[in-house]
């Protein structure tokens, strides 16, 4: 373990740099809230998507993250459900920087300090756990968005992980894309160091506060978000559990992780 003046100086420098990043990010977030309050109501759908993309790209730059996409980004001319494994709060913004998504998320995200308001303002559809009627209403809205040619983004695991495993996907989230006769785009997401090694620095899991996660990301140097796009999966005449299993396998394979154990699926689906 390193010690001494040189190490202390390096640690102080990293902390000061992280503090500067966070200060700039806070200013950027406040600017985003002002835009949501005063400009968004007067913008059309295309202008809103562009504003969200620009804001997300800038946030990633401020926090020192780069996004690396592998595979062809889908076009927004057909109903599409984008299924992604979930690691961090910043996953949402890494995806919004590249795709015009309307996210489906658990209602708890609305309670995130400040960021929850931004996510809600971007048009996120929230689902309350254990409320079947609410889930059905949300699914109807999601199907409407996709039928109109929009892209829906979901984190089918229902929670975050360190990125070193994949949890069983909730099949109910795939029902709207069947109703819209659309396609599923699986995307494998992971965080890497500049040398390509996977890292858990960006993880926002139980036991880590949002501020703690923001601090870890701000202190990191050269963090990369990798998005690996798999082959499109047709939902025409599909069955939601089969679609969920196909997306699981595609993402697990891309991340070189084992697919979730089927025994875990005996747990009730909170969004069913």
Supply the number of structural domains.
1
Largest sheet: 8 strands, mixed
Helix-strand makeup class: alpha/beta
The CATH class designation is Alpha Beta
Keywords:
272 residues; single chain; alpha/beta; disordered C terminus; 8 helices; eight-stranded mixed β-sheet; Glycerol-3-phosphate (1)-acyltransferase
Structural overview:
The protein has 272 residues and is α/β, with parallel strands linked by helices. The chain has one domain: 3-Layer(aba) Sandwich (Glycerol-3-phosphate (1)-acyltransferase), CATH 3.40.1130. It contains eight helices and eight strands. It has helices spanning 5-38, 45-62, 91-96, 115-121, 132-147, 175-179, 210-219, 240-255, and strands spanning 66-70, 80-84, 101-106, 125-127, 151-154, 183-192, 224-229, 233-234. Strands 1, 2, 3, 4, 5, 6, 7 and 8 form an eight-stranded mixed β-sheet that branches. Helix 1 runs parallel beside helix 4 and helix 1 (5-38) crosses helix 7. The radius of gyration is 19 Å and the shape is globular. It starts with a helix and ends in a 17-residue tail after the last helix. The relative contact order is 0.17. Mean pLDDT is 85; it is low at 263-272.
Give me the secondary-structure topology:
Layout: H1 5-38, H2 45-62, E1 66-70, E2 80-84, H3 91-96, E3 101-106, H4 115-121, E4 125-127, H5 132-147, E5 151-154, H6 175-179, E6 183-192, H7 210-219, E7 224-229, E8 233-234, H8 240-255
Parallel strand pairs: 1-7, 2-5, 2-6, 3-4, 3-5
Antiparallel strand pairs: 6-7, 6-8
Helix pairs in contact: 1-2, 1-4, 1-7
